[in-house]
Amino acid sequence: MKIVEGPSSPELGRRVAEALGLELVESTAKRFPDGEFYFRYMEPLSGEELLIVQSLYPPQDEHLLELLAMIHAARDLGVSNITLFVPYLAYSRQDERYLEGECLTSDLVRQLLEDVGADALYTVDVHSMKVLRRYRIPAHNLTAAGELARYFAEKGLRDPLVLAPDDEEMARQRVRYAAEVIDAEYDCLRKERDRYTGEIKTYAKELSVEGRDVIIIDDIISTGRTTANAARILKELGAARIYAGVTHLLLRGNALELIKSAGVEEVVGTDSVPGDLSRVSVAPLIAEALEP
Ligand code: R5P
């Protein structure tokens, strides 16, 4: 198998190549003056198996088109098998038709990736398994929740609790797993989102967190409101230090400020979205999944 890194994930591509002990395929990616994308594989690939590494964080649509171009070219050039590693699978929050007439955008992404020629997909902490269940090609979810929890546990925590800021299926699974990895307790809050305004409401509940450290584990921070709501509830209940370990740090607008002012001491994410706070790598996850 050979590996190629897409324009959104050059560092991650190199880390995955290193973790799997494989060489990166040389490629050229650029934008024309009018903004159109250009991509070229710089070596013959006929008959090869290829792993494409490209995360779909913002600008999602540009990164998606880049990925489609890479798959299309690989297929055209005779690659025998194309596996995608797309740690942040954009549009996965649109996992259902919540309001009549809506585009099921997660399924549009599925159709595009499959139709252009992908043979398998690996992603990390997908928002909902409903998205992956619609794929006809093998589609796998990996989790960084354990490593994120371990990052904070290594600081030495006081009787930690791992908390999900909502109680959806995947959120519950993630905290259960993270808590197991660091041998801690876990719990979930309940959150509701207004499908028209996007406003979210998090419900307070009895949690025995007084004097304890808490790690909030989630898949995404976008506006920061979900994490900030949870942190405010925890502070009111007397939690000591509050940390947030979140796989995909999209951090739009003043998200970080909002979260910090709600009492979160440190936010850490993965290199699914490159940035200063992306201290945990998802490369070992895909390496472990693909190693024979
Ligand atoms: C949604 O339920 C997800 O699991 C995240 O909690 C959510 O997407 C975070 O979004 P925001 O930071 O905008 O509240």
List the helices and strands and how they pair.
Layout: E1 2-5, H1 10-20, E2 27-31, E3 37-41, E4 49-53, H2 60-76, E5 81-85, H3 105-116, E6 120-124, H4 129-133, E7 139-142, H5 145-153, E8 161-164, H6 169-182, E9 185-188, E10 190-193, E11 200-203, E12 214-221, H7 225-236, E13 242-249, H8 255-261, E14 264-270, E15 278-280, H9 283-290
Parallel strand pairs: 1-4, 4-5, 5-6, 6-7, 8-9, 8-12, 12-13, 13-14, 14-15
Antiparallel strand pairs: 2-3, 10-11
Residues 93, 127, 165-166, 171, 200, 218-226 line the site of ribose-5-phosphate.
What are the salient characteristics of this protein?
292 residues, alpha/beta, Rossmann fold, 2 domains, five-stranded parallel beta sheet, 26% strand
Structure explained in plain terms:
The chain contains 9 helices and 15 strands. Strands 9-8-12-13-14-15 form a 6-stranded parallel sheet, with helices on both faces. A 5-stranded parallel sheet has the order 1-4-5-6-7, sandwiched between helices. By secondary structure, it is of the alpha/beta class. The longest helix has 17 residues, at 60-76. Helix 4 (129-133) links the parallel strand 6 and strand 7. Helix 1 (10-20) crosses helix 9 (283-290) and helix 2 (60-76) packs parallel to helix 3 (105-116).
